[in-house]
Amino acid sequence: MEQRFCFTFQYRPENDILLAPAPTYSKTVNNCADRAEVHIETVELDLISPSLEIRVYQKKLEEFRLRGRNVRGLNLINPHNPTGWIFPKEQIIRLCDWAARSGLFVIIDEIFSSCIHDPDAQFDSFLSYRNKLTNPEKVIYVWSPSKDFGLPGTKLATIHTEMPALLKSLNRLSSISPVSTMAEDFIVKLLSDDEFLTSFKRQMVSRLRAHFNFIAEHLKRLKIAFVPASAAIFVLIDLRKHLSRSSFEAEDELMHKLEGVGLYLTSGSHMEALQPGYFRLVFACSKEELKEGICRLYKFLGRDSSGVQDIEYEQ
């Protein structure tokens, strides 16, 4: 994302580090390392019950400092990509306060904040509780319509920060990489249409829920473990038992076999996963495509797909 590039461009020198929970969104790694020479290093996330454990971050921070590496901050996507997990505000407040005490800043990316498809899930936007932090000025909030509205082409993002140096840098960089005035005008009109927003979100959440429930049902039938997502447009599945051996080379072999039957999943190695065998399955597609994909997965595993029913949406 352009805004993350701006942050890391401002806060380098090169080879500085941002910590992120693993697995993480692959483009985060590319945007920071390839363009601003700031490296994403991952902190292990418990995939049985994901949570932000300060002791794990503290251990990783100490490891890098002992090696003479400079950790500058944390990068946190909530809801999380690629698990679809929602981190509760209490955990985020504790982690942000720890980061401030440790001399770190935090980037909180809520790009999937409207894609909450679990009716029992509780999601609180950071901006609703930021004043409960000891040092809220150490946290940078970002959001973009690219995921919540499926509009990546607008190349537009919202950034909330109280850091004077970052604001100055962003103002200068905006002249190099400006937002299209046509995109600005479009987004203003879009976000001003309350009737459309209400209708759009209701339909989007309903369809995401239907697609996730469909995926979850068939993953259970196929005895494929997965992280129970509450939000976003994907699910992290566990295919470790289908590896020929426990290695990322074997993961790549499995990915190529899946591609051979017309299935494209994001492999764990592309998401900085610490264990091989995890894949991200995106379900934000047409219901016909999703059904076909599941049928291909049945076929790949040597199972009969004749019982796969069509997806029905709520009226």
Automatic annotation (TrEMBL):
Task: Give the Pfam families listed for this entry.
Answer: Aminotran_1_2
InterPro entries from the xrefs?
Aminotransferase_I/II_large (IPR004839), Ethylene_sulfur-biosynth (IPR050478), PyrdxlP-dep_Trfase (IPR015424), PyrdxlP-dep_Trfase_major (IPR015421), PyrdxlP-dep_Trfase_small (IPR015422)
Do you know which SUPFAM superfamilies this protein is assigned to? PLP-dependent transferases (SSF53383)
The answer to keyword Transmembrane helix applying to this record is no
Q: Which GO terms describe its molecular function?
A: pyridoxal phosphate binding; transaminase activity
Q: Domain named Aminotransferase class I/classII large: which ranges?
A: 8-296
Q: Name one GO biological process term.
A: amino acid metabolic process
Keywords of the record, alphabetical order, are:
Pyridoxal phosphate
The name under which this protein is listed is Aminotransferase class I/classII large domain-containing protein
Source species, please? Diploscapter pachys
